[in-house]
Amino acid sequence: MxxxxxxxxxxxxxxxQLSVELEDxxxxxxxGNTCPRGDAYARTEVINPVRTVTxxxxxxxxxxPRVSVKTAAPIPKGKIDAVMKDINAVRAEAPVKIGDVLVxxxxxxxxxxxxxxxxxxxx
Amino acid sequence: xxxxxxxxxxxxxxxxxxxxxxxxAGNDSILILERDKELGGILNQCIHNGFGLHTFKEExxxxxYAWRFIQQVLDLGIEYKxxxxxxDIAPDRTVTAMNKEDGMFQIPAKAVILAMGCxxxxxxxxxxxGYRPAGIFSAGTAQRLVxxxxxxxxxxxxxxxxxxxxxxxxRRMTLEGAKVKVVAExxxxxxxxxxNIVQCLxxxxxxxxxxxxxIDIEGKEHIKAVTIAEVGPDRKPIPGTEERYTCDTLLLSVxxxxxxxxxxxxxxxxxxxxxxxxxxxxxxxxxxxxxACGNVLHVHDLVDYVSEEATRAGANAAAFVADGCKEEKPxxxxxxxxxxxxxYTVPSTIDTDRMxxxxxxxFRVGAIYKNAFVSIYYGDERVRHVQKRIIAPGEMEQxxxxxxxxxxxxxxxxxxxxxEQE
Lengths: 123, 422
Hints:
The complex is a heterodimer of chains A (123) and B (422).
Chain A: E1 2-8, E2 17-23, E3 26-31, H1 36-47, E4 50-51, E5 54-60, E6 66-71, E7 75-76, H2 80-89, E8 91-93, E9 101-103, E10 113-115
Chain B: E1 6-9, H1 13-24, E2 30-33, E3 49-51, E4 60-61, H2 62-75, E5 79-81, E6 85-89, E7 94-99, E8 103-108, E9 111-114, E10 118-120, E11 136-138, H3 139-149, E12 156-160, H4 164-175, E13 179-185, H5 194-201, E14 208-210, E15 212-218, E16 225-230, E17 243-246, E18 249-252, E19 256-258, H6 261-266, E20 290-292, H7 303-322, E21 334-339, E22 342-346, E23 349-350, E24 358-365, E25 369-378, E26 381-391, E27 397-402, H8 403-407, E28 414-420
Parallel strand pairs in B: 1-2, 1-9, 2-5, 9-20, 11-18, 12-13, 12-18, 13-14, 21-28
Antiparallel strand pairs in B: 3-4, 6-7, 7-8, 10-19, 15-16, 16-17, 21-23, 22-24, 24-27, 25-26, 25-28
């Protein structure tokens, strides 16, 4: 059975309109992309959609009350809520350096949550 | 106060990239003036990812992108002053500024780079009827509260306007446990990027109502509800289409306005379309030695383009100083015209003597065009005709002009960029 899915590429702000042809649940062809990332995105998006989650964590003794964080790699879309629970449970302590791991293996995804900015310690 | 060759007004993405470029072009006398308590500008509160794909070939969050440039500024030893407000820029390029440490001070700069960015259009500009209760925020204010200060503005949210910050905040508020009920957009299309509509609304089942606007705001002390109605092609509400949404928060994402009070006071010629300065190929305003880049020049969707543009402004400012601050105007500049759907171009004029081998001309269109052509005319002669699947007001377009090509047309005085259906 041939099925056609239309989606918008999210890899970059181009927002290419992609057409994916599926045959018996397997990707047969991707059209409409202007770079290889579009092709790869379409193939995972129809089978296993992933997202990078960004948020903030509470940080103690810092020059700011929150530190911005992200998942170091995209995680399955269905795990967003579980990842947010992990992020909201973090109580970091200043100083925090960009790239510091604040949650290891978040929500069993094998992906870490890392800091995306520096927070200085205030005396 | 020490003197500097180049004063950069603003330490956001445009100011940082301009400073780095001016330094790399050989100028060692640069000062960045920033009114906030840290460098990085609006990127610090844009904690979502998607920045830097063009510049660094990887997807960064706003703070990470800013840090890449802040690090370069620090490594290159470029001077900057924080918590510093520029009060005035004189036509002779004297910059007057003040802060707590130095008090009021003046710098007679050889070149000034305008990099003040933009601000959000406020509620007062919308003429929305109803009370003026608490709970109405611009999307960027809410973004700062949530991402920097750690406060949630509310729990039940309606968003007016589908600009990118509004879309980003729809997702952000949802992730933090709020219920975003609807995004209303008065235009028949969204002004936001496609990927933001997909990732911020579709992913969370948040409805986007195009051709809809807020026609009433209820609540005296705090907002209680809004009424949304469909609008016709005249953008007037259609009776009978009203829907009431209870909410404790209304976010406005209704456009950005370049922040040009300083430029105007200095006598910089402004474009009525972009609300930014009119610039030549060197991103120089009508005042010689005063350059502009980033959102103060025209509002961008992509910080990567801001950095690229600011890099050119920085290099050009350094060249202007190195060249002895010559103020002569070109004898025969080429004028760029935007017609037939193209709203404006940046730059507006080209001096072939000063242009680089390749010149990026950026523009926006006024409506959505499908399978239309972007055409370039040298005088009456059509020299380029490129079909595009989609051209939308929300996404900046660009064409690249080649110096060799322009030099082959020595009598050329006018270039027109337009949209053609065939």
